[in-house]
């Protein structure tokens, strides 16, 4: 059994995944993929991390999102969006939870070099008790489910509402 921050990984996965270990994280071929239907991050978060960690690049591509929202606000704005609805044009997304990050963010990806400081910085500055268990995880981004389908393209109006 693997222990992560004092929590047995098998127990954590069983609590997070209705299908148990493997569950929605693993395809039939045994390969891993992201949990949510949609994964998004804000530029407010990546800018804040870069400001707090000079010399480390927090390029949004490092986090493999489907959507990058250009946000003018400062700080980790998306951490308070759980349970809210995000409209992008006619598309409506129900924000499910903040994304716990792992070592994948520190690895070399295309033209970005590996950098262990990425996860360390997230852990220092944006660790969140995502699942209300008393255990905090380094988080960047959000998972969302599609409530209303449509086409998303740059330049569409974006609206965050309180109701899901």
Instruction: Quote the beta fraction.
Output: 25-35%
One letter per element, helices H and strands E, the order comes to EEHEHEEEHEEE
Span from first to last CA?
37 Å
Instruction: Characterize the largest beta sheet: strand count, sense, and whether it forms a barrel.
Output: 7 strands, mixed
Number of DSSP E strands: 9
The residue fraction in helices comes out at 10-25%
pLDDT under 50 segments (min length 5)? 1-13, 17-33
Shape: globular
Mean pLDDT: 81
Radius of gyration from the CA trace?
Answer: 16 Å
- Secondary structure category: alpha+beta
Question: Remind me, CATH topology of the largest domain?
Answer: M1 Pyruvate Kinase, Domain 3
Number of domains: 2
The total count of helices amounts to 3
Short note summarizing the structure:
The chain has 3 helices and 9 strands. By secondary structure, the chain is of the alpha+beta class.
Chart the SSEs and their pairings.
Blueprint: E1 3-4, E2 7-8, H1 9-16, E3 38-42, H2 43-52, E4 67-69, E5 85-88, E6 91-100, H3 117-125, E7 127-128, E8 137-148, E9 158-161
Parallel strand pairs: 3-4
Antiparallel strand pairs: 1-2, 3-8, 5-6, 5-9, 6-8, 7-8
């Amino acid at each position: 059994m693997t222990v992560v921050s004092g929590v047995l990984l098998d127990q954590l996965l069983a609590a997070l995944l209705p299908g148990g270990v493997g569950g929605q994280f693993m395809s039939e071929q045994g390969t891993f993929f992201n949990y949510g239907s949609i994964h998004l991050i804000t530029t407010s978060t990546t800018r804040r991390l870069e400001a707090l960690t000079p010399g480390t690049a927090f390029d949004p591509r490092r986090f493999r999102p489907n959507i990058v929202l250009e946000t003018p606000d400062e700080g980790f704005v998306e951490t308070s969006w759980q349970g809210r609805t995000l409209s992008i044009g006619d598309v409506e997304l129900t924000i499910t939870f903040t994304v716990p990050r792992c070592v994948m963010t520190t690895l070399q990806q295309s033209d970005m070099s590996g950098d262990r400081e990425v996860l360390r910085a997230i852990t220092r500055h944006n660790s969140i008790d995502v699942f209300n268990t008393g255990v905090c995880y380094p988080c960047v981004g959000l998972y969302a489910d599609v409530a209303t389908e449509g086409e998303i393209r740059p330049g569409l109006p974006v609206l965050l509402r309180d109701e899901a």
